[in-house]
Amino acid sequence: SAVISQKPSRDICQRGTSLTIQCQVDSQVTMMFWYRQQPGQSLTLIATANQGSEATYESGFVIDKFPISRPNLTFSTLTVSNMSPEDSSIYLCSVETGHYEQYFGPGTRLTVT
Amino acid sequence: ELKVEQNPLFLSMQEGKNYTIYCNYSTTSDRLYWYRQDPGKSLESLFVLLSNGAVKQEGRLMASLDTKARLSTLHITAAVHDLSATYFCAESHTGTASKLTFGTGTRLQVTL
Fold this sequence. Notes:
The structure holds two protein chains of two kinds. By secondary structure, chain A is mainly β. Chain A contains no helices and eleven strands.
């Protein structure tokens, strides 16, 4: 298994500002993922973050809006830029460990006013 | 377009009863995951199913996978109130490097 922490756990931000979310894993992992869960909805993949390469974004998500860093094998950040109320969601990072297990962090609950 | 459909979307059941949640997916899949989410919480990993015919059980929950029918089921036996949560299936399809496509979720409410 993997122990994943995220910071902050929640935040209330003003429209037009940016927030950087941190994801820390207790072991080295190759693949990290960022998901968004809008209120009352399922999860949608934003991007895949691999160390040493550019993040790969899914359709509907762009680097200018959601820049991602992956400086090492235990850490990643997701920035939500120029926020609007539509960005209010829970943002979760996940990692894949051995035997194809995928674990999720506790999430960051973002409210944009 | 990749689709993962769950039904029912909402399930209210009495304690002690059995029920099944269905997860249909639209593409060739490498593996199928089941997660549980409690209100305001993150996702808890329940099962990962890796091959056709795979069956896994933990307590009152049993998951199975039929890759030919593109169907996975989560069976609940003798439900208890503590199982009340939202259950998601997710599939990782061939060639997508472990990216998960999630189903709509099934909100389970177990009543006394």
